[in-house]
Amino acid sequence: MEKISGLGKESRNRLAKVMRETKGTVSVRQVADILQLVPDRAAKVLARWASQGWVSRVQRGFYVFIPIEARSTDIVLEDPWIVADQLFSPFYIGGWSAAEYWELTEQIFRTIVVMTTRKPRNRKPVIKGSSFLLRTIPENALFGMKSVWRGQVKINVSDPTRTLLDMLNDPALGGGLRPMVDVFNTYMASKDKDVDLLIKYAVRLDNGAVFKRLGFIATRFAPTEQVLIDSCRARRTKGNAKIDPSMPADKLITAWNLWVPANWAKEGKRD
């Protein structure tokens, strides 16, 4: 456990300048630009501040500031979304994390879902006590986002419609089949419901399994949404898919070319 130590006047002024011109996180490149230093010198400045307990290293070349009231450098991230912006951009917050933000679920998830165009080696990093789940997406899949303020930083998060679509595309992003259906039901009853936009997003994502899952779920849980059901049926592709790739599925719903668990194949069974 490192203790926070004092700074000389010059170093204190430098630190204050960097803190004013950054937003909770800082990189070697930023320090080099702000203090007009060569990168090697900027890296040494950050390393010294880290040894003195004023910043904490997240990964090579990237640090977070330690709150003044902290007694040591053993800190947790104040806002993991801001760190994600620095580490994984271009990206957006999605899946269950976005569902929590838009109040589409009452479940609490400790892991932050990050949809990124990057291809990290570790897709489940734990950074300063915060867990992340990373999903790589193509650049053309960066749509259906809203910018929200987190402190002084704008962060992209999937809008309610895209949040549901991502779960239909990959049920694991919602925590599995049951939570995904719960999000669907909440969405359909919310002010954010937009069937036309949901279909538009699904067409743009271009995954036939999405229409099969969405059509089946809509038929079961929103049978009066005929426009949605008909649109899914018209776009149903050949071949069979599973409603949730992570679950055993031994019943084929031929109307949707969809494999489902046996108890989901029976009307009224939802567990």
Describe this protein's structure.
This protein is of the alpha+beta class. It has 2 domains: 9-65, Arc Repressor Mutant, subunit A; 80-264, no CATH class. 39% of the residues lie in helices and 18% in strands. It is built from 10 helices and 12 strands. The termini are far apart.
Task: Give descriptors for this structure.
elongated; alpha+beta; single chain; 4-stranded mixed beta sheet; 18% strand; 10 helices; Arc Repressor Mutant, subunit A; 3-stranded antiparallel beta sheet; 271 residues
Helix content: 25-40%
- As laid out across the biggest beta sheet, the strand order is 4-5-7-6
Structural class by helix and strand composition? alpha+beta
Number of helices: 10
Number of strands: 12
Shape: elongated
Uncertain segments of ≥5 residues (pLDDT<50)? none
Instruction: Spell the H/E element sequence.
Output: HEHHEEHEHEEEEEHHHHHEEE
**Count of the separate structural domains:** 2
Intertermini distance: 48 Å
Q: Strand count, sense and closure of the main sheet?
A: 4 strands, mixed
Mean pLDDT: 89
State Rg: 23 Å
The amount of beta strand, in percent, is 15-25%
